[in-house]
Design a protein that fits this description.
By secondary structure, the chain is of the alpha/beta class. Helices cover 39% and strands 26% of the residues. Helix 5 runs antiparallel to helix 7. The longest helix is centred in the last third of the chain and has 16 residues.
Length: 235
């Protein structure tokens, strides 16, 4: 459904990604894990069209998208939840959610999409008139996820969704990812939480210094000695 071939990405003259190859099958969860500054966010931003200086090819549903602007990629159904949530703090929860229905493809289904989000995330229904900036960190993450779901993603890309959250909320986010997958949404999950990510992933990639160094079935990667030593402490 989504594929990157020999992707190289740069910030100015600095190369961040080096010949990255990645593919995501429809209906799967694919996890990209690695340490800070490994290039994980650059990868997801490159797919979204937010990194302009890149070479290689990116395909979505057999259509090449690496030359498209970010808003066109989003309109096709490739939706990113950015690191740090990036909600609009001085708008209500409901207004934040409605901003997810900006494209022609989703506008006509606003009410239906809103009900889907409220069914999946009832806390947002309870807080819909509240200013989004007054929510807790976990609730803000739910608002960001809900806004992305309003856009009817074909591929949902989450960039560090558990960053800064308490352990119980981390577990809630991973349960939510699995529930979204069960509703036939393809997911690209970029995360530092290696054990949790790979345990729910159909396929995983390990990114180090901008290069893919390991890939395979998520649970198989968890048994890899190199990965355990580097990221899980041998556990």
């Amino acid at each position: 459904m989504l594929k990157a071939d020999l992707l190289n990405s740069y910030y100015g003259d600095i190369q961040v990604l080096h010949n990255v190859n990645l593919h995501i099958d429809e209906g799967h969860v694919v996890a990209v894990v690695g340490a800070n500054a490994a290039g994980k966010s650059t990868l997801i931003n490159s797919i979204s069209g937010l990194v302009e200086h890149k070479t290689g090819r990116i395909y979505f549903e057999d259509q090449r998208i690496d030359g498209l602007p970010a808003h066109r990629i989003a309109e096709l159904g490739v939706i990113q939840i950015p690191e740090g949530r990036r909600i609009f703090p001085f708008l209500t929860v409901l207004e934040n959610l409605e901003l997810g229905c900006y494209s022609r493809r989703t506008r006509a289904r606003r009410k239906n999409n809103l009900q889907v989000v409220f069914d999946l995330l009832p806390i947002l229904n309870e807080r819909q008139c509240q200013m989004a900036g007054s929510l807790s960190g976990g609730e803000q993450q739910m608002c960001a996820i809900g806004r992305a779901l309003m856009a009817m993603p074909k591929v949902l890309m989450l960039d560090e969704p558990t960053l800064g959250l308490a352990p119980l909320l981390v577990q809630k986010v991973f349960e939510l990812v699995e529930e979204i997958k069960a509703r036939n949404t393809t997911i690209l999950l970029v995360e530092q939480n290696v054990r949790k990510s790979l345990s729910i992933a159909d396929r995983g990639y390990v990114l180090e210094n901008g290069q893919i160094v390991l890939e395979g079935i998520g649970k198989d990667l968890l048994a890899n000695e190199r990965l355990k030593e580097a990221y899980i402490g041998g556990g």
